[in-house]
Amino acid sequence: MFTDNAKIFIQSGKGGDGHVSFRRELYVPAGGPDGGDGGRGGDIIFEVYDGLNTLADFRHVRKYVAENGEPGGKKRCHGADGKDLVIRVPEGTVIRDDESGKVIADMSGENRRLVVLRGGRGGVGNMHFATATMQAPNYAKPGQPGKGMFVRLELKVIADVGLVGFPNVGKSTLLSRVSNAKPEIANYHFTTLRPHLGVVDFDDGEGFVMADLPGLIEGASEGVGLGYDFLRHVERTKVLVHVVDAASTEGRDPVEDVHRIRHELEKYDPALLTRPQIIAANKIDSIQVEEGEENPIDRLRAAFPDLPLYPISGVTGEGIRALTYGILEILRNMKRGVTVFEPEMEISYLSDRDLPYTIERDGDVFVVEGPRIEKMLGYTNLESEKGFNFFQNFLKDSGILEELEHAGIQDGDTVRMYGHEFDYYK
Q1: I need a labelling partner for 82 at 20 to 30 A (CA). Which of 96, 193, 210, 222 fits?
Q2: Residue 391: which of 401, 404, 405, 406 has the closest Cα?
Q3: Residue 423 has pLDDT above 90, yes or no
């Protein structure tokens, strides 16, 4: 089965932690700090690969994690950066945030390679914290965490012209007639389970890309059958060709079929009906009009006077040339660039100030905990005057002191943070 929708988890690499160490060499009894920096975490990169035309590979592998950066080492050694993870996708893949549905990136047009998630920055070693008054800092900064999220991949076919219609009306036969495409052709519903693309070339070097889009059914715009999977491919096409069985070989009414297809397109996205549309009345070689009956071609023209109509036969080739030149004439007056969906969200990265914390009261003791506090204490030397001043400024700048006051703290009350206790005075 054709796969054009997949949900996967992606995560960039964590930055390596900075290292704490001191120079220890013969005849150097009081060597300074020499802890190195951690390496950068690997990025998650999406790249268009022309050898792919489905998202089938993502049915088997659903988790993609880049390498973490290595921690720093002694003697100012820098940790190695984590390797980037490159995820190959077919052109036309739209990457959405699974939770909100917003577009993160569209791998179309000039977007051939994009960094979707950046790796965390490496932490700095203790060699960076040495000062004239603090010559032996015993702390380093940890690496920043990577970013993880679920994304949904959607493949939207890139073509100038889309053939739409119910199953078995002859779309695949038409495409095989006008291009080098070799779609499967058989007489059963949902013959086409995946879009087929063909290039229609003309003698003067002009041409266009035509897509045989899978057959629609009523209710497709509401997700019936494979409706959503099929309709999303119409979004990039510039011209829609309604292929109908004018001979009603399976008992279908061609006029009613066009109405139904237009109804499904309008329910899915009303803007689709503003695009140029053509009716290709197929199977004219099988039309048999009884005496007193109206010719189905005349009925179609009367029902849709604003839509160009081309009687054709996919079997004999009659009318095909006129149809393709009619399509080309419409495209000549249109902008032919690829429709690229604009990003709808910017991925935010967790900084130290974004990490959560909690304030709880235990009698006269106010307990402040959480990743934000724990991380700050991890690289702050509270035994030094400079480190303690940094700690106080952190509490003020981050709004923690203000929240403690809202919680009712009074002068002389105790604040506890991961084994450290302080008396509060305003």
Answers
A1: 96
A2: 401
A3: no
